[in-house]
């Protein structure tokens, strides 16, 4: 038995990536690094590696509801992180789950495309996330390609996407790094008109699981009681370090190193 303070619990509703680079494993590792306890509920199973997604299957909603209800009945959930949902039905399932967690921060990572380009849901999933989930979210964390899907602006700039999406969500973090710019610009927008740009050095290569790492870290920082602007800065800084130290276990993208090499020693 330990007498140390209890770690805050983050409920993760995400897909399983068998390569271990993204999805629930990314959530678990990033939350452990923040000093949080991850409670993972599987929303979907995927066939993917570090190169791309080949197939996926969304779980039956009753299974997802049963997982989440068991966690909520037993553990004091301090924040919720959303990853891959994959279907409109799963969007509605998440809303039902959140009814049991009034006031709990919700970080929505709208996973619509894998890093290798493969689709992780049909077009109507993006519409359902925008119309139904974003109003419940504390913050959404799309990359620019995902923001364009959500905003239905195929060539939209970050500012144009934010203008379209902020009526639906109070805070929006649109991450950069998908172009050829020498610096990465991550832009935090709020409904009141505020915009805070976080610039970081662009790293070589491409990465599998960076979005999952960022969103779960942000959920962990909110669960720890950190204010949102500070939590965003903490999450961006931690995520950049995991990319700087990334490794390449397979033939495809690099995988963020979310835990130090001596974590279990």
From TrEMBL:
Gene3D superfamilies: 3.40.1190.20
InterPro entries reported in the protein's UniProt record: HMP/HMP-P_kinase_dom (IPR004399), PM/HMP-P_kinase-1 (IPR013749), Ribokinase-like (IPR029056)
The organism's place on the tree of life at top rank: Bacteria
EC top class named in words: transferase
Keyword terms, alphabetized: Kinase, Transferase
Pyridoxamine kinase/Phosphomethylpyrimidine kinase domain mapped to chain residues: 17-253
GO molecular function: hydroxymethylpyrimidine kinase activity; phosphomethylpyrimidine kinase activity
Pfam hit, one: Phos_pyr_kin
E.C. number(s) listed in UniProt: 2.7.1.49
Gene Ontology biological process: thiamine biosynthetic process; thiamine diphosphate biosynthetic process
GO CC aspect terms: cytosol
Pathway note: Cofactor biosynthesis; thiamine diphosphate biosynthesis
Name of the protein described by the UniProt record: hydroxymethylpyrimidine kinase
Species this chain originates from: Pseudomonas oryzihabitans
């Amino acid at each position: 038995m330990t007498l140390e303070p209890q770690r805050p619990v983050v409920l993760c509703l995400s897909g399983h990536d068998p390569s271990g680079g993204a999805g629930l494993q990314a959530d678990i590792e990033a939350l452990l690094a923040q000093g949080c306890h991850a409670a993972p509920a599987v929303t979907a199973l995927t066939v993917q590696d570090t190169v791309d997604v080949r197939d996926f299957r969304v779980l039956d909603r009753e299974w997802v509801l049963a997982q989440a209800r068991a966690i909520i009945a037993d553990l004091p959930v301090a924040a919720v992180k959303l990853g891959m949902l994959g279907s409109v039905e799963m969007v509605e399932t998440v809303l039902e789950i959140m009814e049991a967690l009034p006031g709990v921060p919700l970080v929505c990572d709208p996973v619509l495309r894998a890093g290798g380009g493969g689709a992780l849901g049909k077009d109507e999933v993006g519409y359902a996330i925008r119309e139904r989930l974003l109003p419940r979210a504390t913050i959404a964390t799309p990359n620019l390609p995902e923001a364009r899907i959500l905003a239905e602006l195929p060539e939209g700039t970050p500012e144009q996407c934010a203008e379209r999406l902020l009526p639906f969500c109070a805070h929006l973090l649109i991450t950069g790094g998908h172009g050829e710019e020498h610096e990465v610009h991550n832009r935090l927008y709020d409904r009141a008109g505020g915009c805070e740009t976080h610039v970081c050095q662009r790293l070589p290569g491409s990465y599998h699981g960076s979005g999952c790492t960022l969103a779960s870290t942000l959920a962990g920082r909110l669960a720890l009681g950190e204010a949102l602007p500070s939590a965003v800065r903490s999450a961006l800084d931690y995520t950049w370090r995991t990319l700087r130290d990334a490794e390449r276990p397979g033939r495809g993208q690099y995988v963020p190193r979310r835990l130090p090499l001596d974590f279990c020693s």
